[in-house]
Every structure is written in C-alpha cells, then in structure tokens.
Amino acid sequence: MSEIPSIVEVKNQWLYSHIDIKFPTKESIQGRRCYKARAKDAEYQVMDVPEIAGSFIDSDLYKVDFHRATVMFSLLQAKRWEEQSEQEAIVEFFTQIIFSPPCDLYLGFADGQAIAAAIVTSVDGELLISDLACDSEKVESEFISSLFARLKDGHDIVYLEKPLS
Predict the structure, then answer these.
(1) Does this model's pTM top 0.90?
(2) CA-to-CA distance for 117 and 134, rounded, in angstroms?
(3) Whole-number Å distance between alpha carbons of 54 and 73
(4) Are 127 and 154 a contacting pair, CB within 8 Å?
(5) N or C end of the chain: which has fewer CB within 10 A?
(6) Strand 113-123 and strand 126-134: pairing?
C-alpha cells in the first residue's frame, strides 16, 4: 500500500502527545526521535481474514490497563531496537503512555511471560494493528490472528503495520 492510512497519523499523534508535557525527560524525547525514525519507513496493508488461527485464549491476550503491564509492553517494544541507548530511550518513551482512546496496548502471554505486544487503534470503523513486538514469527502470526478475531467486529477495514526487522 503506497498511501499511509489516516488512522496511522491518529495513532502517531496519540503516541507522541504523551510526552508533550511541560518537563519531558530527555530520554523520552530521544525515544520519540528513535520511534519517529523507524515509523517513517513502516508499510501498511489491509488485512484479510488470517489463514493462521490465533492460539491466544482470552486469558492470554491482555489489554494493558495498569503501569506494570505498560512496563512489560515497553520492554518488549525496546527489543525492536539494536542499540542499548535506543532501547533505554524507547522504554522511557513508551512508559509515558496514559491509557486513553483511540489506542489500546495489548500483550500476549505464554506461561506467565509477556511474549507479544501491539498497539491497536480504532477510529471511525477502522482498526489498525501496529507496533508488533513478538518473540518469534510464529508468535507474531498467532498474536495478529488472535487480535483480529477478538477486535474485528464493528470495523469495516482492518490495517496491519508490516513489521520491520
């Protein structure tokens, strides 16, 4: 898909706004800079019904709603960056998130460990699954399928951010 869906801009503005405060930390500003650099190269596709059945049961697919889970989410996201300094900045950036529409953070668990993370954005009948951070390609496919199955109702279009390596 050559054109970036407008829902992506909504998600990015939501995410960036969490450090638009009077005294943001220098690490969270650096984290936003790292995130923006990566986000500009992301690609998006309209999702079809996934071929792989999601294996995350409801108790393993968790909508983040407290700070400790936000930290788990942030640590998984940081693994997408190679440099230690960037990982630290990304953790600081993501831990600033305050739970609010139109975005939700999701975690996938196996054996009590967080193994998958994504941001899910819902706006005007559209859904965006983005910022996937998963332990493996198999986990990623199953996590995407599980999110799709759980959240697709009420949405005319579901976009997927193609994960960047």
Answers:
(1) yes
(2) 6
(3) 20
(4) no
(5) C
(6) antiparallel
